[in-house]
Design a protein that fits this description.
The chain has helices at 9-20, 54-71, 81-146, 173-177, 182-199, 210-232, 243-255, and strands at 2-6, 27-33, 47-53, 154-160, 163-169, 202-207, 235-236, 260-265, 271-276. It is of the alpha+beta class and 281 residues long. The chain folds into 3 domains: 2-127, no CATH class; 149-208, K homology (KH) domain (GMP Synthetase, Chain A, domain 3, 2-Layer Sandwich), CATH 3.30.300.20; 221-280, Ribosomal Protein S8, Chain: A, domain 1, CATH 3.30.1370. The strands form 3 sheets. Strands 1-3-2 form a 3-stranded antiparallel sheet, sandwiched between helices. A 3-stranded mixed sheet has the order 4-5-6. A 3-stranded antiparallel sheet has the order 7-9-8. Strand 4 (154-160) and strand 5 form a beta hairpin.
């Protein structure tokens, strides 16, 4: 019985066949660990199998049958010298067989707990990777903003649940937001394209308290929209720009998880949100 580790199950089977010197069809395998691609390229897992050759197993089974047959012989009959030798050989075979079975069980048991230990540590390892990624993004953002004409002295980044939470502040934070948030939208779009393409991350960008104030403003605005939905089952918002669309979409989907809530675009290219029972029909 052999424990084999390889990037894929196919490669593990092939390696086991080579080690045990038998064809793949003659293998009897137990999969201890399935391969995994991991998260963002980290925590990859190889396939691990415990394999035996059926031909060897059949030989051991036949030996066991012969042993049982000998054990059934009447002990009252005095064994000859040849019988004594045969009995000693069978006793040795039985002992080796039992040791092999115990050892193989230990291998499987140890491997099983190894997998469980990795699963328990995965969450901690992910947090470590997220912390390192947050520090890397924070450093790169500071370098980017240092080359601009704005006075920005606070850049903090936290990465959780595949989302980069970014906080930026400073004397020129209002200028970085721009009139009606047009600079905020441009910066948010730029950072999203960078982080989503490179690290498959979504973002939440807060400059000073702009995002918080916009969330509060939208929360007040959608109150009558929510009342209309509760009375008639449907409603739509006015035209919304930039980040306001996303904020309103998140709040309305949270308020109406069982309804159809989606962004629509008018003929003029302006965006608004509709809420109805489309999914329930």
């Amino acid at each position: 019985m052999k424990k084999v580790e390889a990037p894929t199950l196919e490669e593990a089977y092939a390696e086991a066949s080579k080690v045990l010197e038998c064809s793949i069809s003659e293998l009897q395998c137990e999969v201890v660990q399935h391969p995994s691609k991991g998260i963002l390229g980290f925590f990859k897992k190889h396939a691990i199998i415990v394999a035996t050759c059926k031909a060897v197993k059949a030989e051991k089974t036949e030996t066991k049958k012969r042993q049982e047959s000998v054990e059934k012989v009447d002990v009252s009959v005095s064994p000859t010298e040849e019988e004594q030798v045969a009995t000693e050989i069978l006793t040795t075979v039985k002992k080796e067989t039992e040791e092999n079975i115990v050892n193989s069980q230990d291998v499987v048991l140890e491997s099983f707990f190894d997998v469980d230990t990795e699963d328990e540590e995965t969450c901690v390892e992910e947090n470590i990777v997220y912390d390192e990624l947050a520090l890397l993004i924070e450093t790169q953002l500071k370098e980017l903003l240092s080359k601009s004409c704005f006075e920005i002295d606070v850049v903090e980044v936290d990465v959780r649940d595949n989302t980069a939470l970014i906080f930026i502040d400073g004397d020129d934070a209002a200028l970085l937001i721009g009139k009606e948030g047009y600079r905020y939208n441009a910066l948010s779009y730029m950072i999203f394209n960078w982080l989503h393409t490179k690290y498959e991350l979504f973002i939440k960008l807060e400059i000073a308290e702009f995002l918080t104030s916009q969330q509060e403003m939208i929360r007040s605005y959608i109150k009558p929209v929510i009342e209309t939905v509760e009375k008639t089952g449907r409603a739509k918002t006015r035209f919304l720009d930039g980040i306001l669309v996303q904020i309103a979409l998140e709040q309305l989907r949270e308020r109406f998880p069982d309804k159809y809530v989606a962004v629509k675009t008018s003929k003029e290219g302006k965006k608004f949100i509709v809420i109805n029972d489309f999914n329930n029909k």
